[in-house]
Write a structure and sequence with these properties.
The complex is a heterodimer.
Chain A lengths: L1 H12 L3 H12 L8 E4 L8 H16 L5 E4 L3 H4 L7 E4 L2 E4 L1 H10 L10 H27 L2 H12 L7 H19 L7 H19 L12 H15 L6 H7 L2 H14 L20
Parallel strand pairs in A: 1-2
Antiparallel strand pairs in A: 1-3, 3-4
Helix pairs in contact in A: 3-10, 6-8, 6-9, 6-10, 7-8, 9-11, 10-11
Chain B lengths: L6 H13 L35 H10 L10 H28 L1 H15 L4 H21 L8 H22 L12 H15 L6 H8 L1 H14 L8 H42 L14 H17 L1
Helix pairs in contact in B: 1-2, 1-7, 3-4, 3-5, 3-6, 3-7, 4-5, 6-8, 7-9
The chains are: A mainly alpha, B mainly alpha.
Subcellular location (chain A): Mitochondrion outer membrane
Function (chain A): Involved in transport of proteins into the mitochondrion.
Family (chain A): Belongs to the metaxin family.
Amino acid sequence: MSLAAEAFVSQIAGCRGPERTISRIKQSAEPWPENATLYQPLREDQILLSDCASSLAVQAYLRMCNLPVHVSCRSNAEYMSPSGKVPFVHVGNQVVSELGPIVQFTKAKGHSLSDGLDDVQRAEMKAYMELVNNMLLTAELYIQWCDDTTATEISRPRYSSPYSWPLNQILAYQKQWEVRRKMNAIGWAGKSLEQVYEDVSQCCQALSQRLGTQPYFFNKQPTELDALVFGHLFTILTTRLTSDELGEKIKSYSNLLAFCRRIEQSYFEDSQAGSSSRGYSKGPSLF
Amino acid sequence: MHQIVCTEGLTEMAYAKFAGAPLKVHKITNPWRSPTGTLPALKTTEESTRSLSKPSNIIIHLRKQKYNADYDLSAKEGADTLAFVSLLEEKLLPALIYTQWVDSKNYVDVTRRWYAENIPFPLNFLLPNRIHNQQLERLRLVRGDSTLEPGEQLEKELYQDALECMTLLSQRLGSHKFFFGDSPSSLDAYVFGHLAPLLKVKLPNGKLQQHLNSLDNLRHYCTNILILYFPSEGGEPPIHKVSVHSDSSDFDSEPHKRRKQILSVLFAMGSMLGYAILMGIVSIQHVRPQAALVGPRHIEEGGEEEEEEEE
């Protein structure tokens, strides 16, 4: 109803709705400050696959919007975040966490990547973002915390590395218990590791089919969907886990590999040159 | 009889109809009698397949039996299906769960009452409350906030996501008959399964329903599927359902109310009597017939003595 009303009013006013809205927002919003900071857990020792993927997605999005941000690694980033999830950005006097709210926040400041999309495309973009959250992110959490080998060898030691005994044991097991309860609630507890890999494969197949031969998901310009997909796929490809199967699933789709390389080259090439955003990758690059 | 319909059951029935699979629907009210212990459940005639319950498992099984409603879809459309199903599950389903099971008014007035009336004893006391707690716990885990309480703030966030989801579906559907062309697919089954309960079940707190009714193309889409594939159950306009429901609720509550009143009075009297006997205020003595005359005089004397003392 509100969309129709706005369109009607803008027609009367004699100018196109979206442009008028954006110009109005630009006049009222504060500019993006130079000292905007993104917080995430410690890169070398603490951060886990899922958090690294989310953080990389946000960094990619901000770079695509040309918004400078410093990356600051803190061991208690998770506790500092308003929603308990990382990453979160501190911009001016506001703190916003997770990609969805950050996209809304930047939109309110007048920066948006998805303005050129029509209604059908926007619906598809949101749907695919939910697909990545629903399948890829959940699979990452499952592999990290519900697979005993990975949990014992990688996740628990890394998650609690900044803390001393007995706090490290308590925090690690608490987190594991919390994630397992969530998996139970959404029906993933009964899945085997093979089934989870199969789900990841299906998700990648869907993404690959949607991408096709285009450079980005919605042709020439990247959107928040591209940032999200890049964040997850790149992190999976460059993170060493107990088995290589997850990375292999993605490598079997050549257009997804090419997509990740393209974004890395276009938006992260200058990370070594020491510009405003410092470093991002956790392991070797794709080259 | 007014039925609560659940999303998963509807999704599976719709898919079976779209794919032309012969499916016999047993309407049972006792989940313990189902083959898997929960509802809905699919039982097949093959011995190698055990009974299934999740919609995705059931759809996969039907596909293996060559009942495939997605046969004509292109690769991209198959990918879109997966994406939109994820959108439904992440954005719309939590709000549906909230509106049926967690929102206090809806839960007490409609959901719990239906379960209490239709499920055999003793499940009707245990099951609704257990499901209510399970669903609240699930919402808490999914949102990542263990202190979540049903209330305006949670409702606002969930409904905002759900309204946006419905608007997106409406935009994607446009003026087409189904999401992919002229014949329905599994995505149509999922969307129908999620939206139809909103259309058919009248809830006191009906913000989601209002929004759905304002999206004309989605409303026509659901009623269209109902008329085409569920002709025996669908087709009645929601207005008639409302009046039937309110009549039946008044009628039903009358005998229950009287029965409850009588039972509670009896229980109160019984407990007061029991307490009095235990405390010795009233004592029951077996008086032999010869001594019967002594009894009343004794009490009268006692009464006179008391009166004298009071004065």
